[in-house]
Design goal:
This protein is α+β, with helices and mostly antiparallel strands and about 230 residues long. About 15% of the residues lie in helices and about 35% in strands. The chain folds into two domains: about 5-125, IHF-like DNA-binding proteins (HU Protein, Chain A), CATH 4.10.520.10; about 130-234, Coagulation Factor XIII, Chain A, domain 1.
Amino acid sequence: MPLKYTLHPLKIGPDKEKQQFRAIAKAQDSIDLDGVIDEIMRMGTTVTRADALAVILAYHETVLNLVRDGYNVNTPIFQTKLSIKGVFEHYDTSIDASQHQIKVNLNPGTALRALESSIKVQKIGASLPRPQILQVIHLSGTEQDKPIQAGSIIKIIGARLNFEKSDVEQGVFLTTNLKDWSRIDMILEIKPSEVLFQLPSPLPPNQYQIQVRCKLRNTTQVRTSADMIHLEIV
């Protein structure tokens, strides 16, 4: 299967004339040791699953022992290299565990490096972060999904809900036809995880949809909540 990737805008300064993008790889999944052994078994090997597990565990223990004894281990899959992190104040200073650390550095081996040129890729659409609505609470005491009165106080609970009240493009919006949207003026409280607002009092009875629009951190584009709130006003 190809390696899937998405493109995301680079953070650039105002002097940059053209927007550039960076690729973010999307792994198919994560495979643990049991998954690796499953793949070995599917390849039609003559060894049993128990034998494969025993060999792999012995291999792991051997590599760990070698590294613990100060060896650099070079295999086609990986290469280990030991280093010491920290500053020594004097030439005759010994390692102090509170100031120095032994680090195991891991790099791809020759076989893994050679694999890079043969990996197939597939571009997919990016899933941009956006406001998320998880729950709606009618503070008037009416149960969710039940008709409520105009002028009621509503609380939206979710994520990435913080917006700038002074920006007319951001806020809480409502509509009856998914075309003509009206911005709610009475915003009582704004937090990243919740928004408290009051419905307009002169609001005709109807089925309304409400959504949150905001500019997320380090973005200039208005993002709209994927899920809309459906309210029946009586």
